[in-house]
Amino acid sequence: MRAGAVVLAGGRSERMRSPKALLDWHGTTAVAHAVAVAREGVDGGPVCVVRAPSQELPPLDAIMIDDVVAYGGPLAALHLGLEALSGEAEVVFACGVDTPLLVPAFVRAVCAALGAGDDAAIPVIGGRSQPLLAAYRTALGPVVSALLDRGARSLNDISSACAVRALSETELLAAPALAAADPQLRSALNANTPKEWAALVTGFGPSPGLVR
Predict the structure, then answer these.
(1) Domain for residue 210, yes or no?
(2) What is the CATH number of the domain that holds 89?
(3) Is the predicted pLDDT of residue 110 greater than 50, yes or no?
């Protein structure tokens, strides 16, 4: 099962007060770090970055796609990523740029958990669904398009339209590589404010995930 990744980089970042994609993560940008982790997690598969129209990003080793409408929401951005990687990958791991502790082993575990009858595999961590740290079949493109036509904007709306496997923390940590690399599932920690980002930078240091 060939896997790829979609990195959503075009959010408003209102609470952060500056573009999340360009935040510094130990000498690199948040978006470049997300691309590197995602690519490692899908074993060198294709990576697509969805950005807002005219959004300036550093050079990235990824397919660059502009949102059709600025700040159209994560569901619309995911749809663009699914369409861009259709034919290139059967499954994509979707993530944002604000979870810098994400490790490749987490990406692999989620993608591997996608069963034959599943359209998506979405972790549930700390009692919260994590649709932006999830695996989706690229064949879902038309389903997501139909949701958008009905006015849906949230990734959570996918659960009402297809077969979603909810992954518990226990199921995730059953993957030995993930249990070793991220036993506390800090991969799911995100930042929405400068203070939260600083806490991740100073409190945890660089992600250890770029190690097989």
Answers:
(1) no
(2) 3.90.550.10
(3) yes
